[in-house]
Each structure stands twice: as C-alpha cells, then as structure tokens.
Amino acid sequence: MKKQKTDLWKQGTLELLILRLLRSGQLNGWDIMQRIQLISGEVLSITPGALYPALHRLEERGVITSVWGESANNRRAKFYKLTAAGRKQLESERQTWEQFSGAIEAILRDA
Amino acid sequence: MIGRLWRRLHALVRKEEVERELDEEMRYHLDREIERNLRDGMSQQEACSTALRAFGGMEQAKEECREARGVRFIEEMWQDLRYGARMLIKKPAFTLVAVMTLALGISANTVIFSVINALILNPPHMAEAERVAAIWRTSKDKRSEGYVSYLELQDWRAQSQSFESIAGYKTNGFVLLNKDVAERVEGMRVTANFLSLLRVQLLKGRDFQIEEEKRGAQPVVIVSHQFWQNHLGGNEAALGQQLTMNGRQFIIIGILPQGFEFPLGGKEMELLTTIAGEGGNLDERGAQVLRVIGRLKPGVTFAQAQTEMTGIAANLEQQYPQYSRNMTARLVRAEEQLVGPEVRRALWIMLAAVCFLLLIACTNVTNLLLVRASVRQRELALRVALGAGTWRIARHLLTESLLLALLSGGAGLLVSVWGLSAIKYYGAGQLPRLDEVQIDGRVLAFTLAISVLTALLFSLLPVFKASRPDINEVLKAGTKNATSSGSLGWWRDFLVVAEVALGLVLLIAAGLMIRSFGSLINVNPGFDPKNVLTARISLARKDYENTEERVRYVNQTLERLRALPGVESAAFVAPMPFSGGNVGGDFQIEGRPKPEPGQEPGANVRSVTSDYFQAIRIPLRKGRYFTERDQRGGVGAAIINETLAARYFSGEDPIGKYISNIGANQNEGDPERWEIVGVVGDVHHSSLTKAATPELYLPFQQNSWSWGNFFVRTTNNPTALSHSFTEAILSSDKSVPVTNVQPLTEAISDTVAQTRFYTLLFTLFGVSGLVLTITGIYGVLSYTVSQQTQEIGIRMALGAQERDVLKLVIGHGLVLTLVGIGLGGLMALAATRLMQNLLFGVSATDPATFVAVAVVAALVALMACYFPARRAAKVDPLVALRYE
Lengths: 111, 884
Known about the structure:
The structure holds 2 protein chains of 2 kinds. By secondary structure, chain A is of the alpha+beta class. Chain A has helices at 3-8, 11-22, 29-39, 48-61, 84-110, and strands at 27-28, 64-70, 76-82. Chain A has 5 helices and 3 strands, in the order ααβααββα. In chain A, β2 (64-70) and β3 (76-82) form a beta hairpin. In chain A, α2 crosses α4. In chain A, 30% of the residues are buried. Chain B has 4 domains: 2-69, no CATH class; 142-325, no CATH class; 341-521 and 753-882, no CATH class; 540-735, no CATH class. In chain B, β2 and β3 (181-190) form a beta hairpin. The relative contact order of chain B is 0.10.
C-alpha cells in the first residue's frame, strides 16, 4: 500500500528533520518539503501524505504551533514554528541521532 | 495538557472551521505544486494531474491529520453512539428485554445500596459523632446491654480521664394535663450535661444547671421546637411558664432548636427534664435506670477509653460486690449503637444477594448479545475486510453495550425510586434510620458505576468473539447461521450453567428465610393471642398514688369493659406480653441459706388481676389461679411459671413455699411474704425466638402498678371493637391517657416483622433470580433449536421420531441445568453459612431446603426446555431442509 514510502521514513526521523528545519524560523508545509529535497540533494523525498499528518501530530503534542500568515507569493498559508518544548526535544533527539549514526558509521567502517 | 484539551474541544465545537483550515492548507500545497509544474512548462491540465498524483491521496492525508488531532476518536464515538441507538430502536424486542433484565438487577442494587449508604456509610446525626460512645454495664461473660444507676454513673464521671463528659438519660413518657384533658407526651429525663455533650445550642432560654439534676431540685423542663409551636403557640412568653406533667408543676426554661433529634433515644422527643424526677432511684445503687453516653476527649482512642472503663468497673466490683459482681463496662461506638452488627451483616448479605441477581441479569444479556453477534457476524466480517481494526470494532460494540447499560441504569433508577418507597413502607420500624434513606449523590455515583461495570461485564464475551471473526470462513459460508454449534455454542452452555448456579444460590437463601419464618410463626406463645384487644394506660397522677385508688379504678373499668357487647372476658396486666418489655426482680426463697451476692434467684415480675390467666388462656399446671380473695393484708399469693419452678424448685413441690424481698416495684403496705399458690405454663413474653424465662405473677390487688394494659377477649374480630373499647376506658376517667390500642396478634407480629421483612426481600430476590434464569435457559435453547433446524430436519428425514428430537433438546438443557444445580448447591453451601444468625429454627445448610429448592429449580428448568424442544419436534423435515 501507500504506506511503504513513509515506512522508509521512520516517523521519528521525519519529525527530527521537521524540527531541525523549523529551528531557523517559521515555515509552511510546502517549504519544508522543498527544503528537505533541496538540502538532501534530492536523495530524500517525502510525500504530503506523510508530511501533513506528521505536522499535525507534532502540533497536537505541543512541540510546534501554527499561525496563518502571508506566503512569499502573497497567499494565505499556514506556518509552523517551534515551541520551547520543541527546542528541547530537538536537542535531545539530535543527540540520540548522532550517537546512533556515529555507532552505525563506526561499525560500517571498522568491522 | 490544557492546551491540548482546548484544541480538542475547539476542534470538536468548531468542526467546520477546522475542516476548512485543513482544506485550505492542502489546497495551498497543491497550488504551489501546480505553479511549479507550470513554470516547468507543463500545460494547465498536465500540471494539475501531475500535482495530484504527486500528492498521493489527499483524503487519506486529511484523515490522518484528523486522527493526529484526536478529533477522529470523538467523532467515531459519536458515530458509534448514533449507530448504536439506531440498532436499539430497530430491535425493540431485544432492547426491551435487555433493558428490563438489567434494570431489575441495577435497581435492586441501587435500593440496597441506598439503605447501606444511609444506615452504615453516613455518620449519625450528631456533632462529632465519631467521639461519642454508648457505655453499658454488662456482665463479663454476656455481651448484653445493661442500664446504669445514677450512683455508678457518678463514680464513672469522677474516676475516668478519657471522657470530656459522661451523661445519663432515660426515655420517659409524661402525662400532660391541660384543662382536665390528659395527653401522653414522649420525653426524656437526662443529666444536666446531656445537651452540652451533644453540642446542642438552645433556640431560646437556658440549659439545665448541675444542681437541677439533684434530688428535690425545682422541676424544670426544656421543650422541643414542635411542642413549643403546637402547645405554646410559638410564643417567647412561654419561657418561665408552668406545665403540669405527671401531676407536678414544671417551669419551662428552654426551647430546643428546630429539627433536634437524638438518634440513640428514639426521635419523637417533646419534653426534656432532669433526672431529679427519678427521686429515690438517685440514691439507690441497685436502681439501674439510666442509659449512658460519653464524649471522648480529643485524641483519646476508643481502645484507651475501654481499657480505662474496664479498670474502673473492676474497682467498683471490689467496692460494691453485692451490686457489681461479675459486671464490667463496655463502650459501643455511636454508629454501631445506632445500627447494630446484626443489621449491618444482614444488609451486606442482601447486597451480595442483589449482586448475584445482577450477575444473572448480565449473563442473560450476554446470551442475547451472543445470539445477535452471530447474526451480525457477516456485517462485522465485512467491516474487518474493508479495513476496520479489531480495536475499532470492539470499541463500536462496547459503545453499543454502554448505551444499553446506561439506558438500563436510568430505567433502574426510576424503578428504585419506587422500590425505596416500598422498602420504607414495609421496613418501617424494622430498620433504624430508614427515614434517612434517599437517592443522593453517592447513590447516583454507585448506580452509574455498576451500570458501566455491567456493560463491561456483559459485553466482554460478545466483543471478544465478534471483534476477531474468521473473515474467510464467515464470508464464504454465506448463510446467516455461520457458526451454530462452534465455539460460541460452548460459551452459551457455560453461561446457562453459571446462570442456573447463581439462581440456585438465591433461591436457597430465599428458601431458608421462608423456612425460618415458618418455624418462627409456628412457635406457640403459651397463650391464645387471637381475638384479644389491648390498650395501655398510665396512672401517673396524684389521685392514683396508692393501691386502693388504683384497684378501684381498674376494677371499675373492667366492669365497664365486660359489659361491652361482644366481649367474653377482660383483665389488666403489667407489663402486657409483647408490648411492655419486662421488669426483672430478685427474690429470696424462705428456708434456704442466703445466696452469694449476685446469685439471688431472679424472675420477670408481672402484676395481674385475678382472672388474667383464664382470660389470656395460660394453662394451670399445679395449684390454683388467683381469686378475688387474694386481698391485701397478711401473706400475698404468688404464681410462678414452669421455668421458674424447674430452675429454683427442681425436685421439690413449690406449692406452699414462701418467697420474700421481691426487688421490683413494691409499694408501701404490700405483703412482706408471698406464698406460691400455683404453677402455670411458660409464655413467650417479648420474643418468639428467645427461650422462656422465669416468671413471677403477683395479684394486682396486692401489688399494684401505676401503668399497664387493659385487654378484652372478643367473640369476633377485635379491631371492630377498638372504638367502644377505648371509649369505655375513657368513660371511667377521661384524664387517664389511653395509648397503643391494638390487637395482641398485631403486637406479636410486630416482633417477627424484621424476619418477615428480610424474608420478603430474599423471596423477592429469589423469585426474580428464578424468572431471569428461566428466561435465560429458554432463550438459549430456543436459539440453539432454531440454529439446528436443518440438522433436526435431516435427522427426521433419516427416520428420527418426535420423541428422539424431544430427548435430544431436553437432554441438552437438562444436563446443563443439573451441572448448574450441582455447582450452585456447592456455592450455596459456602454462602448460606453467612446467613446463620438471620435464621431461626433452621440450619444454614438445611438439607431439606437444599433438596426442595434443587428439585423445584430442576422442574422449572425442565419446563423452560420443553417448549423449544416441542417446537423442534414439530419441524417438518421438508421445510427444515430448505431452511437457511
């Protein structure tokens, strides 16, 4: 089913990326999607079907909030930004990720 | 947390707005995508379809967003509720049966719980009741409750440290004389600190002072608010006025606040005076006339106070061996004094009984749901196939069950309002504090809780079974009765067995109560209570202070009573059997060595006119009855009962023996010595359950009392004579108050009323349980038969006879019933032991009752099996084979 694509994106990983992107300021859903594609050099791509539920989940958990504002082309769009709780979570998840990826890397390199 | 809750509520209330925002958000994304595609040089149409494809299922994404918001959960619940309500309305027969069944169980629980709530859980209506205790003078071996003399009370007050204060009181009726018309008013004589111990603030006036409880003090009275309103016009000037009570003048010094009640002393208290009115009793250590309450000092525990009182009692025993040998003091908490351990126990047992009833009801509804579940299996399987999760289906079914249970809870609550008024009506006088029973917040919470619990209980099995159907099997089978005798059939059988077992326990409990009640009312009281009408009178007036005047009044009144048409005989007695309590007294037997103090012979003493025994029909065993010749002056005549003769004159002939120093109610000029002239049969005087006690009868002419009962034996229904009976007594002297006019049979049945009340309730529970069980068995077998129609058709086509089919179905039902009865019997064996002290004259494991009830249950179950079996046997094989 459709889920297979999001399965590549483990939920936590996607959420970590969203939090990281929002650290530098508020963004709307489309921006987030574009940036992930752009920054990863088109390696990572996500569907809106995975992105938007993830955004709503994060908002429901209170780590991000949303406001309606003007977008670059003067249209009304929904912008998301980090809350204090979100910053904390980003920090801790980032550490966890670094430990994890460091460990994997070490094994791949030396084993 | 609060923010999240707010968002949820917001989402729920402003659903449209949230939907619009979601829409707009998605729309924006799509538009940006289209724009980019256009920039990349696609045509308008191509740009749109590519963008939509890239989005990949917008509705699903929205749905996931909604779920992430938690909106979906609530929305689905609402959906389930509406769907559930529709299902309940569409199947009115199912709904009605289920709701009625559950409402019966829930209302029974609600009623019993509200009684427990008022009697046990709510504290007594006294300020800081948790520090108030009743203190009784009891013998060391027995746990009986004995009254206390004023001198002993004074010793307790002086020697104890645990109590803030100790007060004495006795209930006392007063004859109030108002312009020559006498009226009997209930009241109390109390020690001066009584009201302050209870923390009562007077509405007006002042409290008693300590000197006013001493002998010879100026008589003062504090009146109730009601008395003040009804008799004194609610006028402030009433303070300082005088009341004529028992022929003496009392000054009104205070008015009690409205709604004053003293739960431990009976509730209709109109007049409060001090114990100064007890006169000589105050100086007499043997005059145990007071009931005692104490208020513990803050921080003192009951155990500490009890230890101290035990010590004080031991000292008093040393000091006054002739009065206090073998006696001790016992504390009873106020709430336990008010509602004794026996009533508490009975109530908890009843709660257990109604829980059983509710369990049976649950079992029935479980069965109904299982039947429905197998019909709905295709519907549910289809939903699972379409992607509904197990939890989703379970939630759906649970919501339906909850709806059903809440509906039943509501219906049950309505029924219990009615049930409570019935309990209050039939239980009046049998249970304390019954007027406080009501449906309050705690009862409502209880009802809600058991409704929800019930829903969980009865839907557990159906939900478990239905939410994990084997999709392939069910959908392939294609017929509505996919699983007729598979795993569900086994569960149904189990439920029938459980139901029969539970029902049997209830029935056996009911059977034991009925047997117990039967043996109680068959006790021979020792006299003939039929067609006897009694009335209590009180001669507590100056005109009747000596024996001559009392005898003249009583004889004159008896003449008038005998002259009434329809009256066979008339007599006077104090105290009347079954209406006046007992008055005990010691005596000495002449010619015997003086017994050890505390070992003197004792008996209940009764003063009777000479034809008493003939009139009430107590048989003479030896010697003679009293006659008119037994007059004052010289030696008195006494008659004893068989128990007294056996206890104190075993092996000798009591006739002609002399007794003296009778320690009860002696007047000046009464005989010093009494000759035993007769022995009469034993009589139950206050309770049919208690064994007869030694009785000593004295002639009224020789030992007159200032109160007692007139009674007449009538040729017809005595109630018809009530009016002329009362009038005849009043015509003798209208200032003598006449109260408690009632047939003697009624007075006796009052004493068995508690047992009758319990019996009534248990019978009700038992019968309800039986009815539910029968419907349960009937329902299950009917369903099984309808599921087996095809099978039966084949059997008949292959040559099975009607008889074989009957045997098949009934045999199945009967096996289940018998297993249930076996299990139920074992359960009852364990459970009814708890009932032992509710029972009289029958053992809690009475084999006769067990067997009889089991046989009745088996027969009734057989009938419930017969009708479905009959239907099965009438099946036409041709129709059956085509039947789907």
